[in-house]
Amino acid sequence: MIQILDKKFEIFIPRQEIDEKIKELGNAINSKFHNQEVVFLSVLNGSFMFSSDLMKTINLDCEISFVKMKSYRGTSSTGNVDELIGLGKNLEGKQVVILEDIIDSGLTIDKIIKLIEDQNPANILSCTLLFKPDAFQGLNKPDLVGFNIPNAFVVGYGLDYDEKGRNLDAIYQIKE
Fold this sequence. Notes:
The structure is a single chain. The chain is α/β, with parallel strands linked by helices. The protein has a domain at 16-68 and 82-149: Rossmann fold. The chain is 21% helix and 36% strand. The chain is built from 3 helices and 12 strands. It has helices spanning 15-32, 48-55, 107-117, and strands at 2-4, 7-13, 37-43, 61-70, 72-73, 76-77, 83-85, 95-103, 123-131, 144-148, 154-155, 171-174. A 6-stranded mixed sheet has the order 7-4-3-8-9-10. A 4-stranded antiparallel sheet has the order 1-2-12-11. A two-stranded antiparallel sheet has the order 5-6. Helix 1 crosses helix 2 (48-55). It is globular, with a radius of gyration of 16 Å.
């Protein structure tokens, strides 16, 4: 059991299980895109650990770029996710793999896919470490999923609670 700010969390997915799942995901990507060039888009902030570890398993000719969704104007949220920050490359005709730490409602991944589709890539594949099928309301289910999890709050391995806990090497679930 650990405490982050005012909440208690218990271990949910140990580091060893995460490592094994990442190797499986990497093998799936390597097989799907064998002898092809791939552009990976890691969605910050949460996916930085997942992306780093996954990239160590990739044996393709590839590039990685880190992107972030913009939904703020000044200090207040617009309520809309409307811009992909950090995408400084042309994706036309490219194989694109979006890397997410977690997909729950699916609204963010839907918006990212729409923004990327505007650049006419050859293919878009989404890969997420965690997926909450019970919370999903989007149009684009993830193509590759590490773990299906219940609709509970999780932290660690890049995921945060008020920006805390991203540095934990395992995934923890809130203990209510």
